[in-house]
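Reviewers asked in the last cycle whether our approach scales beyond single polypeptides. To address this, we selected a multi-component target totalling 123 residues and predicted its structure end to end. The input consisted of the following lines:
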Amino acid sequence: MERNTRQREVIKQVFESEARPLNPLEILDLAKVSLSRVSVATVYRAIKELIEEKWLTPVKISGQPLYYERDRHHHHHHFYCESCCKVFEVEGCIPVKKLTPKGFSLESHDILLSGRCPACLKQ
Ligand SMILES: [Zn+2]
Ligand SMILES: [Zn+2]
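The resulting structure, written as structure tokens, was:
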């Protein structure tokens, strides 16, 4: 039980320090820095619990495994780096209502920006 709590705390810290959506393998790699014994199963269990507690929420990037981010209930979008596969939060939105054809009722929208992040552009 105690080890479980420690692992969860480390996983939370990983999200706080990275401040971007992470997939389970990224979480595993980053958690390994502070935890000697951590498995993919542990990471998945922690993710499941943190989603139930509304601390994390899944981020769907088409064609990619699920990413997860802090559940902050604010409207935003994402940038996907095609080079390093990292996902970043993008603040703000565009006037999607203007794009909606006449006679249609807009219920939701999904915008994904993709390209290369600053770190990859430097290489
Ligand atoms: Zn990149
Ligand atoms: Zn939007």
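The mean pLDDT is 94. We regard this as preliminary and will revisit it once experimental data from Aim 1 are available.
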